[in-house]
């Protein structure tokens, strides 16, 4: 495998071997009562050096394997994940796809000055009010 990382904006399900160098911008747990009330999902927003973002999800059975090594604001080299359509009510990035961690997914903490940005893009309430199309926004505290 080469040392070159793929850009987030190029990720599609039509290729299997992706290698991304990303920052964890946001990390949160979510229960999905439609599947099983006892099962958790761990979601992340990941960002590359070009400030492109993609959502990643870790299913209940794999959370313990990955959660201890993932921290908001840290940089990682990630490989061996599945790419799936980014659909549903939990869509928090504009990317058409999301990453789904598998048992074989590799997550290695790295140091790089290439991704210094926080990843947040702020929009005023006036701008939101003026939008005529159906836009989705993640609003936090």
Core attributes:
38% strand, 141 residues, OB fold (Dihydrolipoamide Acetyltransferase, E2P), mainly beta
Please give a structural write-up.
With 141 residues, the protein is mostly beta strands. It has one domain: Nucleic acid-binding proteins (OB fold (Dihydrolipoamide Acetyltransferase, E2P), Beta Barrel), CATH 2.40.50.140. The chain has two helices and five strands; from the N terminus they run βββαββα. The protein has helices at 63-67, 125-130; strands at residues 19-31, 40-47, 53-59, 75-85, 97-110. It has a five-stranded mixed β-barrel with strand order 1-2-3-5-4. A hairpin with a 5-residue loop joins strand 2 (40-47) and strand 3. The protein is globular and about 45 Å long. It starts with 18 loop residues before the first strand and ends in an 11-residue tail after the last helix. 18% of the residues are buried.
For the largest beta-sheet, the strand count, sense and barrel status come to: 5 strands, mixed, barrel
**What global shape is seen?**
globular
Which fold name is given in CATH as the topology?
A: OB fold (Dihydrolipoamide Acetyltransferase, E2P)
What fraction strand? 35-45%
- Listing every helix as H and every strand as E from the N terminus to the C terminus, the arrangement reads EEEHEEH
CATH class: Mainly Beta
Secondary structure elements and pairings:
Layout: E1 19-31, E2 40-47, E3 53-59, H1 63-67, E4 75-85, E5 97-110, H2 125-130
């Amino acid at each position: 495998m080469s040392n070159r990382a793929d850009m987030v904006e190029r990720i599609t399900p039509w290729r299997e071997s992706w290698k991304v160098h990303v920052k964890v911008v946001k990390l949160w747990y979510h229960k999905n009562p439609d599947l099983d009330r006892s099962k958790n999902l761990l979601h992340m927003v990941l960002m590359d050096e070009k400030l492109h973002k993609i959502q990643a999800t870790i299913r209940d059975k794999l959370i313990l394997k990955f959660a201890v090594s993932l921290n908001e604001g840290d940089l990682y080299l990630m490989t061996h994940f599945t790419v799936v359509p980014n659909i549903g009510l939990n869509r928090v990035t504009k990317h058409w796809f999301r990453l789904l961690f598998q048992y074989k997914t590799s997550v290695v903490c790295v140091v790089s000055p290439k991704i210094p940005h926080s990843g947040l893009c702020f929009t005023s309430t006036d701008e939101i009010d003026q939008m005529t199309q159906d836009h989705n926004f993640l609003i936090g505290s």
